[in-house]
């Protein structure tokens, strides 16, 4: 699996139905609560459209790692925010009430992703069929 700053190939997800079913009813709630310190699992990813140049804010699940965040990629390479993030090579995440500049996105799977996930998230991810994650570093300054 190779991810360059311009493109990435995560393939199609095994099945995304359960994630889509959860996203529909919780989407409006996530949009309001994402990025707040009251619900730290949801964050806001700020990214720029790779062709339009439009600034977007997308609610996502983002978990802190030692030097950044790991973000599940439940819809594979059809995920527009991921395409934009890889094309730009950077963006920002609002998580737990704080804004973080991020960069160096990398596509990870399997054991590499598991090393960054709490046990309960590994368990749930496996049951939902999540195989790919985006790992980003926090950029200083």
Annotation keywords:
single chain; 141 residues; alpha+beta; 7-stranded antiparallel β-sheet; 7 strands; 33% strand; globular; disordered N terminus
How would you explain this protein's 3D organization?
Helix content is 29%, strand content 33%. The protein contains four helices and seven strands. By secondary structure, the chain is an alpha+beta fold. The chain starts with 16 loop residues before the first helix and ends with a strand.
Contiguous runs where pLDDT drops below 50 for at least 5 residues: 1-6
Q: Outline the biggest β-sheet.
A: 7 strands, antiparallel
Major sheet: arrangement of strands: 2-1-5-6-7-4-3
Order of helices and strands: HEEEEHEEHHE
Share of helix among residues?
25-40%
Strand content: 25-35%
Approximate shape: globular
Q: What is the tally of beta strands?
A: 7
* Computed CA radius of gyration, to the nearest angstrom: 14 Å
| Discrete helix count | 4
Report how far the terminal alpha carbons are from each other.
30 Å
Structural class: alpha+beta
User: Mean pLDDT score, rounded?
Assistant: 81
